[in-house]
Amino acid sequence: MADAGMLRFHVPEPEVRPGGTPDFSNVTIPKAGSVPRPEIDVDPRTIRDMAFSIIRVLNRAGEAVGPWAGLLSDDELLEGLRHMMTLRSFDARMQMAQRQGKTSFYMQHLGEEAVSCAFRKALAPGDMNFPTYRQAGLLIADGYPMVTMMNQIYSNEADPLKGRQLPIMYSSKEHGFFSISGNLATQYIQAVGWAMASAISNDSKIAAAWIGDGSTAESDFHAALVFASTYKAPVVLNVVNNQWAISTFQGIARGGSGTFAARGLGFGIPSLRVDGNDYLAVHAVAKWAATRARKNLGPTLVEYVTYRVGAHSSSDDPSAYRPKAESDAWPLGDPIVRLKNHLIQRGVWSDERHTQAEAEILETVIAAQREAERHGTLHAGGKPSTRDMFEGVYAEMPPHLRRQRQQAGV
Ligand SMILES: Cc1ncc(C[n+]2csc(CCOP(=O)(O)OP(=O)(O)O)c2C)c(N)n1
Ligand SMILES: [Mg+2]
């Protein structure tokens, strides 16, 4: 008989804390090219093991191998590299702008650039993302102007959201980027609802839901999966597992399920894991999932296995909760370096061209920043008008707001 002594409360702990030696030996990484590519109408029951593997295309030598390779041309890959480099450069400049007091807040994508940049290229015009704050690559890869993003970050007179959103919480209907909510996981139910509406109205557009590993612990995530599964909603359910939720390691939200992808299995949703630092793998899996949605085959859950190299936000200091060198030990490498090496290996890129592109991109980012700053920054120059505060919410302004607007004299 089992010991009937004192009960013990279980709280999962990360392998290593600050001062310790980073150790990812518990992360099983399958060989690139080793995971099969099923037909899109596959019976989900036959691919349950994919929720515990990792789809990878780029191998250590920088070659694209296996059944998920070969979807993108050299030109498309060069464009993808440029998008990721632009996002990284943009992040560095805006992080610095935050330190200079030009904005109150910033969040970087360091190490996660492939996820949103490659995903965007698997969507069609009119499709709608319901993103979190760490998918600005969806906008960059869709050609959304950097100046407009910066105007939002600075809450200046040209901010399309008129200072009413936290910096980096962009919104663009034209670019398929639904307004970000600071309340985590709400975007999951919104995405599924939007996808259901698209199906109900016999439209052709699909939705993409986005969530981080930590936020999957929210009940909205689970409620969204119920509706997505029951009504076969045309939606791609993305989980970006960057190992951390601010200072909380992924084991807390994941619990005993083994992987975040495995959460989808109980709902009968095909659930795949992909190397989130492999541009080609992310794009191939996103395309597979988007095609399923478009062909009325229902939702797909995709877990992107990646690592948050930077701090959670400009208000965070990761040295308090994880070893400093942990990101260097991350076994899936850096997404930009990996795509760069692949393109060099293919003979269409070189170290010199890369360095030159870095300089060109930085110049473009600086030029955009100069233009944005002409419209003001947080503490200097043009601001949205006070009148804007009262507009854009109600079709007809309620009497108490009208009174307040009069009192404010605007
Ligand atoms: C409902 C809700 N709870 C808590 C927070 C505070 N919060 C903001 S970001 C964050 C961590 C989220 O981690 P994860 O989902 O892994 O996304 P990541 O930041 O790693 O991309 C928390 C707890 C919030 N914004 N909303
Ligand atoms: Mg996270």
UniProtKB/TrEMBL annotation:
Quote one Gene Ontology molecular function term.
branched-chain 2-oxo acid dehydrogenase activity
Residues covered by region (Disordered): 1-37
Q: Which SUPFAM superfamilies match?
A: Thiamin diphosphate-binding fold (THDP-binding)
- Residue stretches making up the 2-oxoisovalerate dehydrogenase E1 alpha subunit N-terminal domain: 7-44
Cofactor(s) named in the record: thiamine diphosphate
- One biological process term in Gene Ontology: branched-chain amino acid catabolic process
Domain Dehydrogenase E1 component residue range list: 83-379
Enzyme nomenclature, EC number: 1.2.4.4
Keywords annotated in UniProt: Oxidoreductase, Thiamine pyrophosphate
Give the top-rank taxon of the lineage listed in the UniProt record for this protein: Bacteria
Q: What class of enzyme is it?
A: oxidoreductase
> What does it catalyze?
N(6)-[(R)-lipoyl]-L-lysyl-[protein] + 3-methyl-2-oxobutanoate + H(+) = N(6)-[(R)-S(8)-2-methylpropanoyldihydrolipoyl]-L-lysyl-[protein] + CO2
Q: What does this protein do?
A: The branched-chain alpha-keto dehydrogenase complex catalyzes the overall conversion of alpha-keto acids to acyl-CoA and CO(2). It contains multiple copies of three enzymatic components: branched-chain alpha-keto acid decarboxylase (E1), lipoamide acyltransferase (E2) and lipoamide dehydrogenase (E3).
Provide the family line.
Belongs to the BCKDHA family.
What is the protein's given name? 2-oxoisovalerate dehydrogenase subunit alpha
